[in-house]
Design brief:
2 copies of one chain form a homodimer. Chain A is of the alpha+beta class and 258 residues long. Chain A contains 7 helices and 10 strands. In chain A, strands 1, 2, 3, 4, 5, 6 and 7 form a 7-stranded mixed β-sheet that branches. In chain A, a hairpin with a 6-residue loop joins strand 1 and strand 2. The N terminus of chain A is likely disordered. The first copy, chain A, binds a DNA duplex (30 and 30 nucleotides) through helix 7.
Chain lengths: 258, 258
DNA sequence: TTAGTTATGGTCAAGTTGACTCAAACTGAT
DNA sequence: ATCAGTTTGAGTCAACTTGACCATAACTAA
């Protein structure tokens, strides 16, 4: 969103670009790099809820991979990779997610195409970023290794490239979508209690919600279906289980799903 | 947004791709094209309000350019072009818009990255599409020629590539943003009457709105400022002029604007 | 002066939201 | 067997918002 400036005034930029490149450059020279087309990458911000270590209540986590080469070697970054030829953007995101973390998302949506000129010091790269939600069952058996680790979304430290800004934006979108749309259920399994839904909202929005008012609101949405089942085993009145019957939909790539 | 299918089931696709390519192909062979990286293009959906020819009331129009070569030679398409090296995505969209239509947008936001595999029959191309609003003063003096023409958004006919779907999605986004955000004012000049704002809503959403209720709602938003001026010259009570004081903002590329 | 037209302020009923109260239904300890 | 502790789940009430509608104000054209 910009009040666009149609005039000149863009004259300083190329010099800055050249300076940065000179510092970090490894093999190819400036002329070569400027003629080469910008390369295209796909990355994904993956959210899951996990019990907090301290309080035990669910909190937002996301998996990152450690960079094993320059630039930003050793830093943590979003999982991603190049776009191969035989797959759509969404398929590429899905594949990438599976390959780096072993996860299959319950929700996957395009976030934004990031194409600033100085995102990577060594080359011009345009990243089409997706964001995904995975259910806790999935998240529990996710691969974790020396180079793949889960972090609390609010305690990330400094990431490679512009990935901190990307995560911030993904968080903003997640909170926004949660407030309007019917997205919370993709964090949960097929059956859930209304209290679990509330915990999702509280974790993502980082607020406390009145249980009674929240339940009234959720129950008024037509996409929530009461089941006859109850969740046993708590040390209190057993809560009824519900089911989500809505379909995701409004991404242009997913319009056709009935 | 998808319940992603992590499994196989993608086996039919390459065959379909090959068949399409065979029909339309001109020079390069299949192997060459599959190894080449997908090319990156920037396109823009540009909206402006113009008086309808029949009723005289404002309606949504957008400029298209005629394709002068294959594929889809002769058909109308969204203005666009390749991404050059020394500009950000947004700058590229802005430049493209200026070059093809002579317009400077009052609003510009990224819409979506379209990357389906069969968008263009001759090569794999990923389009990062922006959408823009221009004010009527701008729109009036827009270049129009044999190969650039304005069309009513609801009477487009069949466009090149997947551009009909792209326009549909842009329309959906525009209507959505209008209903929530404070975007209507970018169709108008610096000073406007509340009735003009209402006309924007009525044109875009294609409904009739109650003038009294609408004014109450608009006046309750803090970003609208009463001026002491009135619009003279109508054949009725002169309406007060208002001013919009809000800033666009929430696109990740524009977060920094104060 | 009057008819026509839009601007602008107001009322009222229906619906929504947030704060809060209270009974129901379970577990675990005494 | 009973009681304390917990969460579920229903409901009340006032504040606020929304849509339908009415009435007056302020201009022009005839």
């Amino acid at each position: 969103m910009t009040i666009t400036n149609p005039g000149p005034a863009r004259t300083g930029r190329p010099i800055a670009a050249k300076r940065v490149i000179t510092v970090y450059t490894t093999s190819a020279n400036v002329a070569e790099r400027q003629s080469a087309p910008p390369s295209l990458a796909i990355s994904t911000v993956i959210f899951a809820l996990r019990p907090s270590e301290s309080s035990g209540r669910p909190t937002l986590w996301l998996p990152l991979v450690r960079r094993i080469r320059e630039p930003f070697k050793g830093l943590w970054a979003l999982p991603g990779g190049p776009l191969t030829h035989a797959e759509s953007l969404q398929d590429a995101a899905s594949r990438n997610l599976r390959e780096t973390t072993g996860l299959a998302p319950s929700y996957l949506e395009q976030l934004y195409a990031f194409g600033g000129m100085h995102r990577s010091p060594t080359q011009r790269v345009v990243s089409i970023v997706y964001w995904a939600l995975v259910q806790p069952t999935e998240a529990a058996l996710a691969d974790e290794s020396e180079n793949v680790r889960w972090f609390r979304a609010d305690k990330l430290g400094s990431l490679a490239f512009d990935h901190n800004a990307i995560v911030d934006y993904a968080l903003w979108r997640l909170r926004n979508k949660l407030a309007y749309g019917s997205i919370a259920y993709h964090f949960l399994g097929e059956y859930f209690t209304l209290a679990q839904v509330r915990e999702v909202y509280e974790a993502v929005l980082d607020t406390q919600l009145d249980p009674a008012n929240f339940r009234r609101q959720i129950k008024s949405t037509p996409e929530i279906e009461e089941t006859g089942e109850y969740l046993q085993g708590g040390k209190h009145r057993p809560p009824r289980l519900y089911r989500f019957t809505g379909r995701p939909g409004l991404d242009p790539d997913n319009r056709s799903i009935p």
